[in-house]
Amino acid sequence: MHVNNTAEEKEIVTQQKSKLGVRLFFIYLICYAGFVFLGVFKYELLASTVFWGLNLALTYGIGLIIFAVILGIVYNYYCTKYEDQAEKTENLTEGENK
């Protein structure tokens, strides 16, 4: 009985992590699509200076890289949180079964 609970809990955690990953992917995809859109349709805008003499293309590109790192940190934080919650639940279940 305990093995089934653990498998179910692992499946739930896997589903939560997958949903989060897909959501973060689509958030990043929208931001990246904006960059591609500018590059294809408004390429002259990418040459405009925005910060400290850097053009929009470079600023946007660096911003995308930094944003990807931030999303990775967010993903790691929530995945660890989900796993910790499942472990607490598993430990509580073990305590009840003894």
Automatic annotation (TrEMBL):
Keywords: Membrane, Transmembrane, Transmembrane helix. The lineage of its organism: Bacteria, Pseudomonadati, Bacteroidota, Sphingobacteriia, Sphingobacteriales. The chain crosses the membrane at residues 20-41, 53-78. It comes from Sphingobacterium yanglingense. Pfam families: DUF485. It comes from the Bacteria. This is Uncharacterized protein DUF485.
